[in-house]
């Protein structure tokens, strides 16, 4: 007979919002314990299981104010289960994957299981989230790289019957615009920005320029939510690179949006600067070089992205004719693209910790074992991984670009296959952060469900999303090689020097509990200053102007370009008047 030898439930403040459990189990017993929001006499949560005697614990950092005995709650369902059968360890050459059908998701491997575990959120939790956000009159903008549990909750929140319109999941480009729309169309009185710090800074700056500077933007944590790439542009080396660039004729600094407002301000003072995203960086360079003759572009801080853009332009110059190139930009041809390619100077020492880790073993495995798959790659990934996707993209078998570009490519291929009325499984290697798989699953299942509704006699189409995680990125749990958590190194960063980092540790500082806490604090009228974006430029001036306005200027130049398909005259004049 199986039994628990101890059970303690401690509940924190703010509507019993967080809990700590400590359970000692005799194997093979499965304890169903609900770790989400709770009220007295209601216990609902996640599952933990034990394969050997010992303690299983889950704890949160909030101070415990009240402790309830077990009998204060409805009995937990403690059900003996058969001995656990671990997921078979993947062969060395194989990557974990998720197979998506119209009404089911099949994980292949431990990492994939971790991604799918929370794709169907508890509806009581969604109801609580909807209630808190509605009463707080709070909007949410979130990046695609949130963890699966949080993304699934937000996706469900947007759907009927909840239909919470003030919620948007997107890449960096769309987050600020979505926040402005929420202020204008839904009248929200605050915005929760779920991402890293530079995202909340950018959202706040865009809102202020749109006339909504009085609406506060809150982060999910009081401590810093950093970014390895943004930090690469904050040292003296980057500033020295900019100062040297400013001495060139007709210089333009194209700075990635994944940088702090302070970096954008310092850049703008030093050299003519425009912000870009992975969605519009190529178009920005194409347009700038068509407007300014003999332009010299300085791109930073993302070294991989800059080098990949040069590689992509080189491939296009060598393989496309002028007619095809004119589809990219009507004023360009092979000669002008070659000139643009040669005019780009890339900052040499900046990268994202996630995309940096797609290393040698990963690239070899993709080439050798997944030749039949579509390959996608974010512009930030290392050159070898990018080159595979670039090669395949030339014949429609791959895609390079932003998270939105990757999502649209996968969705388009699935829709095309669904229309063909033939049973098949499409394989996609996902060369970016694994967090966006939630959006991919939702989009693919919507497409397949619609196809089945229109033609229920057609062939079954599936999409397999493959996570290129190196085998060395698999960390055994407790020394048991059969039970693994991937990707991960003992430090918990989710990366391995062997390659295959598929998780951003900074993005994962945003979670469902944190969103609930922020809403609770707003409802309670607490001091929220610690949750505001970094205020490093507050009260400062640069060349007699407010530093915040100087930092926002490159973002406004980008917004002008996106609206008018042209660089603003003010920026062009500054470029051409440089030495």
Q: Alpha-carbon distance between the termini?
A: 83 Å
Q: How many β-strand stretches?
A: 25
Mean pLDDT: 77
Radius of gyration, Cα only, in angstroms?
A: 25 Å
Largest sheet: 6 strands, mixed
Multimeric status of the protein: single chain
- Regions with little confidence, pLDDT below 50 for 5+ residues: 1-93, 474-501
**Estimated helix fraction:** 25-40%
Residues in β-strands, percent: 15-25%
Number of helices: 20
- In the sheet with the most strands, the strands line up as 9-8-21-20-18-19
Note the overall shape.
globular
Structural class: alpha/beta
What does this structure look like?
Strands 9-8-21-20-18-19 form a six-stranded mixed beta sheet, with helices on both faces. Strands 5-2-1-6 form a four-stranded antiparallel beta sheet. It has 20 helices and 25 strands. It has about 575 residues and is α/β, with parallel strands linked by helices. It starts with a strand and ends with a helix. About 40% of the residues lie in helices and about 20% in strands. The N terminus is likely disordered. α6 packs across α19.
């Amino acid at each position: 007979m199986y039994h628990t030898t101890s059970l303690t439930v401690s509940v924190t403040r703010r509507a019993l919002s967080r809990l700590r459990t400590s359970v000692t189990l005799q194997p093979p017993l499965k304890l169903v314990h609900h770790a989400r929001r709770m009220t007295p006499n209601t216990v609902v949560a996640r599952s933990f299981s034990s394969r050997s005697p010992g303690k299983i614990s889950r704890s949160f950092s909030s101070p415990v104010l009240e402790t309830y005995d077990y009998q204060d709650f409805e009995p937990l369902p403690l059900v003996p289960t058969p001995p656990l059968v671990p997921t078979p360890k993947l062969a060395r050459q194989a990557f974990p994957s998720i197979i998506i059908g119209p009404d089911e998701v099949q994980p292949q491997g431990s990492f994939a299981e971790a991604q799918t575990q929370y794709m169907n959120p508890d509806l009581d939790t969604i109801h609580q989230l909807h209630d808190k956000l509605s009463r707080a009159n709070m909007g949410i903008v979130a990046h695609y790289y949130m963890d699966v549990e949080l993304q699934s909750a937000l996706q469900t929140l947007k759907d009927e019957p909840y239909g919470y319109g003030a919620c948007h999941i997107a890449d960096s480009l769309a987050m600020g615009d979505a926040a402005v729309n929420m202020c204008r169309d839904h009248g929200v009185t605050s915005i929760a920005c779920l991402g890293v710090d530079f995202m909340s800074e950018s959202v706040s700056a865009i809102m202020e320029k749109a006339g909504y500077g009085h609406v506060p933007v809150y982060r999910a944590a009081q401590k810093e939510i950093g970014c390895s790439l943004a930090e690469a542009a904050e040292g003296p080396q980057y500033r020295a690179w900019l100062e040297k660039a400013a001495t060139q004729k007709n210089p333009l600094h194209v700075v990635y949006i994944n940088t702090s407002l302070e970096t954008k301000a310092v850049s703008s003072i030093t050299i003519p600067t425009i912000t870009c995203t992975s969605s519009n960086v190529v178009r920005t360079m194409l347009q700038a070089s068509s407007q300014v003759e003999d332009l010299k572009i300085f791109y930073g801080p993302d070294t991989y992205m800059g080098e990949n853009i040069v590689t992509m332009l080189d491939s296009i110059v060598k393989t496309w004719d002028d007619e095809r190139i004119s589809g990219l930009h009507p004023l360009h041809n092979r000669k002008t693209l070659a000139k643009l390619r040669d005019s780009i100077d890339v900052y040499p020492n900046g990268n994202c910790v996630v995309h940096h880790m797609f290393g040698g073993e990963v690239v070899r495995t993709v080439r050798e074992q997944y030749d039949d798959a579509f390959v996608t790659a974010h512009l930030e990934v290392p050159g070898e991984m990018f080159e595979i996707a670039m090669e395949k993209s030339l014949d429609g078998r791959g895609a390079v670009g932003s998270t939105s570009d990757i999502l649209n490519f996968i969705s388009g291929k699935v829709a095309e296959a669904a229309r063909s009325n033939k049973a098949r499984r499409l394989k996609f290697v996902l060369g970016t952060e694994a967090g966006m798989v939630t959006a991919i699953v939702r989009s693919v299942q919507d497409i397949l469900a619609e196809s089945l509704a229109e033609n229920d006699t057609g062939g079954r189409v599936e999409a397999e999303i493959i996570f290129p995680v190196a085998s060395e990125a698999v960390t055994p749990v407790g020394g048991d090689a059969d039970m693994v958590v991937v990707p991960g190194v003992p430090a918990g960063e989710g990366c391995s020097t062997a390659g295959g980092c598929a998780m951003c540790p900074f993005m994962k500082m945003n979670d469902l509990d944190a969103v609930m806490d922020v809403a609770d604090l707003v409802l309670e009228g607490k001091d929220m200053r610690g949750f505001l974006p970094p205020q490093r430029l507050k009260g400062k001036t640069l060349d007699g102007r407010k530093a915040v306005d100087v930092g926002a200027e490159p973002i406004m130049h980008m917004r002008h370009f996106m609206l008018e398909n042209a660089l603003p005259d003010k920026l062009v004049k500054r470029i051409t008047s440089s030495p």
